[in-house]
Write a structure and sequence with these properties.
CrtISO-like, seven-stranded mixed sheet, Amine oxidase domain-containing protein, 3 domains, FAD/NAD-bd_sf, 21% strand, alpha+beta, 540 residues, 18 helices
Amino acid sequence: MSDGKASTSSEVDFVVVGSGLGGLSAGALLAKYGYDVTVCESHYHPGGCAHGFEIKDKNSDDIFKFDAGPSLWAGMSEPSTNPLRQVMDAVGAQVEWKKYDGWGVYFPDGYFRFNVGPSDQAGGFEDVIRKFGGPGGSIQEWKKLQEIIKPLILACTTFPPMALRADLGVLKTLSKYLPTFLSFGPAAATINGPFSAVMKQAGIREGTFLWRWLDYLSFALSGLLADGTICAAVSYTLGDLHRKGSLLDYPVGGSGAVCEALVQAMERNGGKLLLKTPVQEILIKDGRAAGVITKGGDTILARKGVISNVPVWSLPKLLPDEYSTFSFGGLWQENHNTRGLKEDLKKTPQTESFMHLHLGTPDLDIHYTVINEWESGIDAPGNMIVISIPTVLDPSLAPPGKHVVHAYTAGNEPYDLFEGMDRNSDKYKQLKKERAEVLYKAVEKVIPDLRDRIQVELVGSPLTHERYLRRPQGTYGPAWRAGKNLFPGPGLAKVPGLLCCGDSVFPGIGVPAVAASGLTAANSMVSVGEHVELFLRGGW
């Protein structure tokens, strides 16, 4: 028990542990299916890594609204194959979106603006290649790459994400699409391999501008370079960025608005979100996941199942060391030891963490990427920085005439520099200041007099990531390498009635991927008939 309150017990159909975009997608869909759902979230904001927050200036009444995580959105402002958009359409979650057409890139050879849309249009990516490509990274190799990935893009978009589920019922929900998918033959077979294999097939040489650019895109997607990122993810992204009419999106109100829209949709359909409610244990009864016990001592029983949206390294703490199943009318008991499973889950490889810089300052692009140097690799500590200035599109996030800036090292900050440090110590504060300097220098490429303009400043370290986002060691996510390992499916815990979602399971890291994992888990918890009915109702 905590806070001196007597523990209580309640019962619902499903409990979802964690309200990241995967958990919210699962919870909102299950509520749409008509089930009684409760989502338990340890933080005081929903959304996990995608939550938003407000900071008030200590010296004035000015309030600045920041994104904690994702800043680049695509395929959201209109119906698309983006899994999150399909979830929001299915549950009736409404968000206003602003559109824009590219971002600025500072790198060792200069500066260019990356414009989305066909690469051969005026100002398109082919102009960038002509200027910076050099030998072995020319228009010819780029065009060959586009030809190679064309069937891959079609294969990736053959199945509407809403048709996905993780049991044999998928044969029915995907049946009408399978002939088309299989018609792609060898192309379909390469989808789960590393994207670098396709780059080599196109004749792109390592060390060239084009190779490094594709390494950058891969790293931004997965936290791994092209030799570790699955072909499907990069092919889909390239297809989306370079299609005719392509635009990028930003949610009015910030990323938190997306989370709130999913929460509201879930609550309209009878679901419930419990904030500041960390889960202590996932209950297993008669061999099935049967609910949760919160750290406050409350028991929430689940008649039909539990979905976990916690990182794979945190899941073992929620599972008992052993549980029993009964068969033959309860005459036979079989004991299951989960210690081996727990050790396997803990061994999941991790990407590195982040340094974050949130600033409130007094006309710019909404996004920039800064790459400091090529030689040590895109994934070297502090080498690639992403800068987001969302007030360019949504002025409501800051007082009139001012901007919010979110800069971060993208999954390349070592946790071990901070491990074990006291967050209140002068040593920690000094290290944060030192490690944030690369962020300041990056933003100064865009706003040269930045330090004279700062009104509000927040510096986040891997320890901040670990504490507030519940990410073990502040990690970006699992580092499963394409061609060597596959992300596990939602049943990775191997406990009946317990499915997982989020970036720890297939299809992996990123906003579309975690939404896909959430909808897959939710669809797998309901009957094929219910799934097909909702699917047909959505017009997919």
